[in-house]
Amino acid sequence: MPGVTKQPLRAAKPVPIKRRDRERTRQEILDIAFEEFAENGLSGGNTDAIAARANITKRLIFYYFNSKEELFTAVLEMAYAEMRAAEEDLHLEALEPEAAIRRLAEFTFDFHQAHPQFVRLVSIENIHRGRHMAISRRLKEMTQPSISQIAKVLERGAACGAIRPGIDPVELHMTLNALSFFAVANRHTFEAQFAFDMSSSKARAQRRAEIADLLWRCVRGD
C-alpha cells in the first residue's frame, strides 16, 4: 500500500529448552524410590509409580539405573550414607569414654526412631538375604569409619581402665543396633502381645536411657 513502509521480518527468538539437572533428577528418583520400596518392598515397588511421582518417563529411570535391582541397591546406599554421615558428626574422640559410649547409644536409638522407613528398608533387604549389600562396594566401604570410631573409643577407654579390654567393636555395634532396631521394627507386634507402651514420648525416653545404661554396663571396666 502507498505510504506504508514494510518492516523487515525479524527472526523469532528461540525458546530456551529447560534441561533437567542430571543430579537433581537422579536424586529425586532416589528419594521417591526410597519411599516406594520402604512401603511396598522390592517386589511390590512399582517403577511406573516412581516415574509418575517424579513426572518423568520410566525409560528415564532406567537411563540412570539399569534395572530395578540396581535402583534398590542405590536406595540402600543412599539410606546408609545418611546414617554414616551423621555418625561421623558425633566427634566421639572429643568425649570421655563413658560419655562417648552413651552418646553413641543415644544417637543410634534416635536415628532409628526418626527414620522408621530406614528400618523397614533394612528389614526388606534382610528378606532378600542381603544380596544387594553383598555386591555394593560403597556399602562395604562406608562401614569402616563407623567401626573405626567405635574401636578408638574402646581403645582409649581400655588404656585408662574405664573400659574392659578385648571388646570387639563389630560385636558392640551389633548389640547396640539390635537394641535400637527392635524398638522400631518390632514395636507393633510387641505392643499387641504385651500391651506395653513403646510409642509415647515417655516410653521412648525411658527406652533410650535404658539402652545407654545397658551399653555402658556392657563395656565398663569395673
Query: For this structure, what is the CATH class of the largest domain?
Result: Mainly Alpha
Residue-averaged pLDDT? 90
Radius of gyration: 25 Å
Strand content: under 5%
SSE class: mainly alpha
Helix proportion range: over 70%
Relevant CATH superfamily of the largest domain:
Tetracycline Repressor, domain 2
Query: What ranges have pLDDT less than 50 throughout 5 or more consecutive residues?
Result: 14-18
Number of discrete helical segments: 11
Shape: globular
Describe the structure.
By secondary structure, this protein is mainly alpha-helical. The protein has two domains: 20-66, Homeodomain-like (Arc Repressor Mutant, subunit A); 80-219, Tetracycline Repressor, domain 2 (Orthogonal Bundle), CATH 1.10.357.10. 72% of the residues lie in helices and 0% in strands. The chain starts with 21 loop residues before the first helix and ends with a helix.
